[in-house]
UniProtKB/TrEMBL annotation:
This is Uncharacterized protein. Gene3D superfamilies: Mitochondrial carrier domain (1.50.40.10). It is found in: Mitochondrion outer membrane. Pfam families: Mito_carr. Keywords: Membrane, Mitochondrion, Mitochondrion outer membrane, Repeat, Transmembrane, Transmembrane helix, Transport. Residues 70-89 have a biased composition (Polar residues). GO terms for cellular component: mitochondrial outer membrane. Belongs to the mitochondrial carrier (TC 2.A.29) family. It comes from Adineta ricciae (Rotifer). InterPro entries: MCP_dom_sf, MCP_transmembrane. Solcar repeats lie at residues 89-189.
Length: 387
């Protein structure tokens, strides 16, 4: 009996244990299940609903937004077109500004240039006078340039002071415009990048000279016919001719072509070209020597340039006289024919003759215009007034 009861009680104990073990498992499974099921559904629906809106909004925006770029590209093209027009307008405005400044400057200086051309041609309407020079020695002097201009004013009036102004201005404008455009075609100048080239080198100076000579040569070539017209128009003051006009260049073209052919448009071209080339070379060389041998100062750059230009113009001035004389020679004007002026074969012949007679410096100064050589000296016995 004891064994049976013990054996029966043992399984009961085991079943209770099993039930106790199973009940927690069932409770653990069933208890968390109810809250877990609704929570994912709510969260899932929220996650589904919430992200649905942004794609729709973004998609609509992305569809609508790309529609605008063609309009923006059109406006961009308009802006670029306007930018191109504005740049060309700025270029035209700068060109107009330069032309206006050149015209004003040339208008102010033309009377002096006009008087100098007549002096270079050897025309002296006013008698010389006797005075002492800086060394206390007596010498003959022509009246200064302003008394010369007063004589022109008394003959032709104020408008007469601007004889040949139109052709002279056109020559300067053509020369400047051609030189500028050739310089643009050659491209930008190479800049020095290495630190050891702080001071200018001879190689850089040579490149600058060659570039300026190339640009200026084209400017001189294309503008020289108008320079010939201007010189001959000014020379008409002596003989009171009216063959050349200050404005009507077609009349001048016809007159030159009928008298001298195509070559008449380029008389005096070589000495004028030599003036420009010599001035460029001398100016750049002198500036280079000053910058390399003297302390480099930005304030002194303009002084160096002024000194170099003054020296170059002084050295090349005789060629300017030859250019004027050659341009008037054989022109049919009284000032360019016998007996006032010899007939020269070419510009070298004119240079040799003017050098022998000491006439290469005439018209070089505004004041104290000394009489050189025997040209212009009064005949013996003629009274000469004192200063």
């Amino acid at each position: 009996m004891d064994e049976t009861s013990s054996s029966e009680s043992a399984p009961v104990t085991d079943n209770s244990l099993i039930e106790e073990e199973l009940q927690p498992d069932v409770e653990e499974v069933q208890i968390p299940a109810p809250p877990v099921i609704p929570t994912p559904i709510i969260q899932t629906t929220e996650r589904i609903v919430t992200p649905i809106q942004p794609p729709i909004t973004q998609t609509v925006e992305r569809v609508v937004t790309p529609i605008q770029p063609p309009v923006q590209s059109g406006s961009t093209l308009r802006q670029r077109a306007q930018g191109g027009l504005s740049s060309s307008a700025n270029s035209a405005k700068s060109t107009f500004t330069v032309l206006k400044a050149t015209t004003i400057q040339h208008a102010l200086g033309h009377p002096l240039a006009y008087a100098r051309v007549l002096m270079q041609a050897g025309y002296e309407p006013l008698p010389p006078y006797r005075a002492t020079n800086l060394f206390g020695k007596e010498a003959l002097y022509y009246p200064n340039t302003f008394r010369y201009l007063r004589h022109i004013y008394n003959v032709d009036g104020f408008i007469g002071l601007y004889r040949g102004f139109g052709c002279s201005l056109l020559s300067k404008v053509v020369c400047w415009y051609t030189t500028t455009k050739i310089d643009e075609l050659l491209g930008p100048v190479e800049s020095q990048t290495s630190g050891n080239q702080a001071k200018p080198t001879w190689n850089k100076c040579t490149q600058k000279i060659l570039r300026e000579v190339r640009c200026q040569s084209w400017g001189v070539l294309l503008s020289h016919p108008f320079q010939v017209m201007a010189i001959r128009c000014m020379g008409q003051f002596v003989g009171r001719e009216k063959a050349y006009s200050s404005i009507n260049i077609f009349q001048n073209f016809q007159e030159i072509y009928n008298r001298q052919g195509i070559g008449g448009f380029f008389v005096g071209l070589i000495p004028r070209w030599l003036i420009e080339v010599s001035t460029i070379v001398l100016t750049n060389v002198i500036i280079h020597l000053l910058k390399t041998n003297l302390p480099i100062q930005n304030d002194m750059a303009s002084v160096y340039e002024y000194l170099a230009t003054f020296v170059a113009q002084t050295v090349t001035y005789p060629l300017s006289v030859v250019t004027t004389v050659t341009a008037m020679n054989r022109s049919g004007l009284q000032i360019g024919m016998l007996p006032r002026t010899p007939i020269y074969a070419n510009w070298q012949d004119a240079y040799i003759h003017l050098k022998k007679t000491e006439q290469l410096k005439r018209g070089s100064s505004l004041f104290n215009r000394a009489v050189f050589g025997n040209v212009g000296v009064p005949a013996p016995g003629t009274p000469i007034p004192n200063a």
